Amino acid sequence: MTDSPAPAPDRHRDTAPGSADHSPDHRTATRDSYDAIAEEYTAWIANELAAKPYDRAVLGAFSELVLATGSAETLELGCGPGRITAFLAALGLEASGLDLSPAMIAQAKQHHPGIDFTVGTMTCLPRDSDSLAGVVAWYSIIHVPDEDLDAVFAEVARVLRPGGHFQLAFQLPSEPTHPAEPTDPTEADGLAAGHQVEHFTELAGIDVDLSFHRRTLGSVASRLRAHGFAPVARVEREPDQHGQYPESTPQGYLLMRRLLAPK
Ligand SMILES: C[S@@+](CC[C@H](N)C(=O)[O-])C[C@H]1O[C@@H](n2cnc3c(N)ncnc32)[C@H](O)[C@@H]1O
Questions:
Q1: What is the mean pLDDT of residues 108-112?
Q2: Is 87:112 a contact under the CB 8 Å cutoff?
Q3: pLDDT over 80 at 115, yes or no
Q4: Thinking of the domain 43-176+236-263, which architecture would CATH place it in?
Q5: Ligand 1 centroid – CA 76 distance (Å)
Q6: Domain boundaries, the chain
Q7: With the CA atoms of 124, 37, 17 and 9 taken in that order, what torsion angle do they form, in degrees rounded to the nearest 10?
Q8: d(CA 262, CA 45)
Q9: Ligand 1 mutation pick, 77, 99, 167, max ligand atoms within 8 A of CB
Q10: Is residue 105 within 6 Å of ligand 1 at its C-beta?
Q11: Residue 121 · residue 100 · CB < 8 Å
Q12: What is the pTM of this model?
């Protein structure tokens, strides 16, 4: 995905790549930030998917794989204005969305009135155990620090049926974060791979307090394995530097499947 409405990201950087997120309440800061930019973000991102054929292909493959299981209930975590949820619904999934930001959920409801959107946190999902065939986190774990990531992944493992699919998309580190880290992300499994954190205090002229976490495909897959998932597909795409939505980092797409065996 395009860098969030963020002209000249380096201008706003105040946390060095690889340093920790020191926000005392990162979730409140994330919610308040997205509440503040909800209207601008919704207008800015509205046509992004039309400009990103690989993104559409990834979501199309995910939808086909979910539908092939005979079920269609799918939840998008961090759905923002609901454009991805709506795209999945148009592909035949029974898609709903959840987001931390009430203003984002208001935008989602306004633009996609036929779809169920809920305010909530992905660390505590309002769904029964084994109730979903698919879960999507499309550029939303980018705001989740390491200390909360296992809680999110445990919740996804709880609500997904065995054999259910979990599709993630996130920005990858712009360069190796450790000299010893393999350049092939598939080799990074099992390593305590570092990640980069970029902090923004302003986006599109609006004050925010937002951290963006960039992780390798291997490090996220490795964490998910510990929650009973197996990798299905890992795709790395070069940054789109020439289109309407320019990107400054490689983009990562990870599809994991919840194992059939008891966790
Ligand atoms: C970059 S936006 C992506 C929105 C949407 N997935 C899209 O691609 O248009 C990230 C979204 O994740 C949400 N978010 C961040 N942390 C969250 C959490 N812990 N629980 C639920 N939503 C969260 C934010 O409020 C924001 O709307």
A1: 98
A2: no
A3: yes
A4: 3-Layer(aba) Sandwich (3.40)
A5: 9
A6: 43-176+236-263
A7: 160
A8: 40
A9: 99
A10: no
A11: yes
A12: 0.88
